[in-house]
Write a structure and sequence with these properties.
This is Carbohydrate ABC transporter permease. InterPro entries: ABC_transporter_permease, MetI-like, MetI-like_sf. It is a multi-pass membrane protein. The protein is an all-alpha fold and 311 residues long. Helix content is 72%, strand content 0%. α1 crosses α13 and α3 packs parallel to α7.
Length: 311
């Protein structure tokens, strides 16, 4: 005859499992607590405080007074605010598409089965390892209007080089050129995307008689769109946060004629040079809204042009 289980032991099994589950959860929260505390102290609380400060005259040195929407109203009547927005949008509109086009083209070239290709991949990635301050100093010498290497090379072939960073019309194109020099990280991501495309698709296209251009347009680019989408979003966000290069190149002055005064530079100047932290907080939230709106538009439109394998 089978022995019946003790009811006390049956009840003890679920409670033991619950204690083990609680213990596991407690250990998990213990390991996650440094991240959670950091997120709360260095991100969540400062963000909430900046919302409040944007409605005050807070200046770091003084608590300030509540002024409602005055900071936002003052921003819309600030000529330099609009100039910084124009400079930032100009940089974004030209840099992001060029970085995608050049990045994809370089990745396709570096994806070829050629001997010694690893060396070329390393060469294109190396500029991303250079600190941006050192990069700015290097390009200041290269683009110097009088004794710079670029204008010197142009003079050898009879071309009078522009003022580059010293001229209002060439300052932002010069910055775009510098930034494009460091797209090696994006190229690596494109290379990973190219490596993820199955060879069967190319073989099928080859059987159908497709040439190189048709393979690129019908196979490579459509299947690379998820990577392009990622780099588009990250590139747009990074472009709106452009700071280190223009700040170093102009020593924080935005010269010439404020053509290099970018949005985050002007935000920094208001917050930490003029101690108008309430004003700077208002600028930060306007930037947040702009970036979120553009990111939302990209996500919504991505349904039309981003293609995933198997879908």
């Amino acid at each position: 005859m089978a022995k019946l289980a003790d009811p006390v032991q049956v009840k003890a099994i679920p409670s033991a499992r619950k204690r083990a589950l609680h213990r596991t959860n407690a250990i998990g929260w213990l390991f996650a607590s440094p991240w959670a505390i950091g997120l709360l102290c260095f991100y969540a609380i400062p963000m909430l405080m900046s919302i409040y400060f944007s409605f005050t005259t807070y200046s770091i040195l003084q608590p300030g007074e509540f002024v409602g929407m005055n900071n936002y109203k003052e921003l819309f009547h600030d000529p330099l605010f609009w100039k910084s927005i124009y400079n930032t949008i100009y940089f974004t509109v030209f840099f992001v598409p060029l970085s995608i086009f050049i990045g994809v083209a370089l990745a396709m070239m570096l994806n070829m089965k050629v001997k010694g290709m690893a060396v070329f991949r390393t060469i294109f990635f190396l500029p991303t390892l250079v600190p941006q301050v050192a990069l700015a100093v290097l390009w200041m010498w290269l683009l110097h209007p009088n004794f710079g290497l670029v204008n010197g090379m142009l003079a050898n072939i009879g071309i009078d080089g522009p003022a580059w960073l010293g001229g209002e019309s060439w300052s932002k194109p010069s910055l775009i050129l510098m930034s494009l020099w460091g797209i090696g990280q994006a190229v690596v991501i494109y290379l990973a995307g190219l490596g993820d495309i199955p060879e069967e698709y190319y073989e099928a296209a080859q059987i159908d008689g497709a040439n190189w251009f048709q393979k690129t347009r019908k196979v490579t680019l459509p299947l690379l769109t998820p990577v392009i989408f990622y780099n588009l979003v990250m590139g747009m966000i990074g472009a709106f946060q452009q700071f280190t290069l223009p700040y170093t190149l102009t020593k924080g002055q935005g010269t010439p004629a404020n053509s290099m005064t970018f949005y985050v530079m002007y935000l920094y100047e208001n917050g930490f040079r003029y101690f108008k932290m309430g004003y700077a907080s208002a600028m930060a939230w306007i930037l947040f809204i702009i970036v979120m709106a553009l990111t939302g538009i990209i996500f919504i439109t991505s349904k039309r042009w981003v293609h995933y394998q198997g879908k």
